[in-house]
Amino acid sequence: MKINPDTLLQQAVSWAKEAGNHTLNYFNKGIEVLNKADDSPVTIADREAELIIRKRIEETYPTHGIIGEEYGTKEGSESITWILDPIDGTKSFIHGVPLYTTLIGVLVENQPLIGVIYAPATGEIAYACKGKGAFYNDKPTKVRACSDLAKATFFTTELSHIYAHGYKAFFDTTHDACKIHRTWGDAYGHMKVAAGQADLMFDPILNIWDAAALAPVIEEAGGIFSDTKGRFSIHGGNGFSCSPELYPSVITLLEAHTQQ
Fold this sequence. Notes:
Layout: H1 5-23, E1 34-35, E2 41-42, H2 44-60, E3 65-68, E4 72-74, E5 80-88, H3 90-94, E6 101-108, E7 111-119, E8 124-129, E9 134-136, E10 139-140, E11 153-156, H4 159-164, H5 168-177, E12 180-182, H6 186-194, E13 200-203, H7 208-211, H8 214-220, E14 224-226, E15 239-242, H9 247-257
Parallel strand pairs: 3-5, 11-12, 11-13
Antiparallel strand pairs: 1-2, 3-4, 5-6, 6-7, 7-8, 8-9, 9-10, 13-15, 14-15
């Protein structure tokens, strides 16, 4: 099947909004929280939102592959795979914090082509297709040019994950070097980098469904998405987003202060 990137992007945006808006039916409603095998939380909102996207993909592209956080992998017979995270930031969601997102990434030959980051509770959206630029709230967006950590706004996920995975020294040094730090984590923090509203977002743990949507958005916004080893990959198991100007400082600190 011939690939039409514009059509795929339009569909990814539409389906992310449909699924994300469905989660609002449960947001701040005191719904039941279950624990998965890895002890991470999950709700009916996560599961129903992923099923919405899966249904749309299977109806429209039955030969495409799908990888989703909640319902696993469906092998496809083509080179296109959809990567789904119906609620990135479930802990925020279950505590009534609106900084959670619905993520859709599209890979072609295992390389990121399209990314969508939608925050239904705040109404914000960022999306991109490789070679076509990035958009934040439907307007072209660029990372801001920040080359000095002393002027940078630094976002992270929860600190317990940072400490548990050997990044305490990196965090402490970077925190002290930066102007502002907030734990506005998960994909929401990466979206803020793409929107030019933050300068560095660091995640010590990223699964494929977390990372696939991030790389196209950050890169098309003129930024860098990298793992902690300096590889521009969504498969590294961790990652950070920043401007090209800030990247050398961040990777130097990671090399000097990572216990891995």
